[in-house]
Write a structure and sequence with these properties.
alpha+beta; 25% helix; 7-stranded antiparallel beta sheet
């Protein structure tokens, strides 16, 4: 008996993904950076991005354990489910986005797998943020690439800018 989930896109021979990765160095320790990234009250941090996260609904499980999930509601009405795959404070936050509603994701993106890797860098933290988006079908690959380039990547950069603005400080101070 296999413990692997059924993956219809793989079984159908559709295993294309669109990849994106961003990185930054934050002038703060890895623990503070990680806690900011994975905050249960994500609305506070992402309200400064566009589109902004307006609410979190239907959370199941404790937000620092694999399997926990919640619905993220954006200020433009779009929604998606965020589910934790792996959580290892202060180094790894691996999660999946599914159940997209609203344009431009619905009908274009089937799922997104993301990972924050936070590494101590002296008194600083080096942050890598990786995304892999799976198109609904081979025919939606170009649309998924355009969405990643024109919407998602700028949104990710906005979050990293917010992270740095909130946490950058003199790393040599107490």
């Amino acid at each position: 008996m296999s413990s692997f989930p059924k993956l219809p896109h793989v079984e159908a021979g559709t295993n294309l993904v669109v990849l994106n990765a961003l990185e930054t160095v934050v002038e703060n320790n890895a623990e503070r950076v990680f806690d900011f990234i994975v905050a249960e009250d994500v609305v506070v941090h992402f309200r400064k991005t566009s589109p902004a996260i307006a609410a979190v609904e239907d959370q199941s499980g404790t937000w620092n354990h694999a399997g926990a999930s919640r619905i993220i509601v954006m200020d433009n009405g779009n929604r998606f489910r965020e589910t934790i795959i792996a959580y290892q404070r202060p180094y790894l936050f691996h999660y999946m986005l599914t159940e997209f509603s609203g344009a431009p994701q619905k009908g274009v993106v089937n799922e997104a797998i993301a990972m924050f890797i936070v590494q101590p860098y002296g008194p600083r933290a080096h942050v890598n943020w990786h995304y892999a988006m799976r198109p609904e079908s081979d025919a939606r690959l170009a649309d998924t690439r355009a969405f990643m380039q024109n919407v998602w990547r700028p949104w990710q950069q906005g979050f990293l800018d917010t992270l740095k603005k909130a946490l950058d400080k003199d790393p040599w101070s107490a």
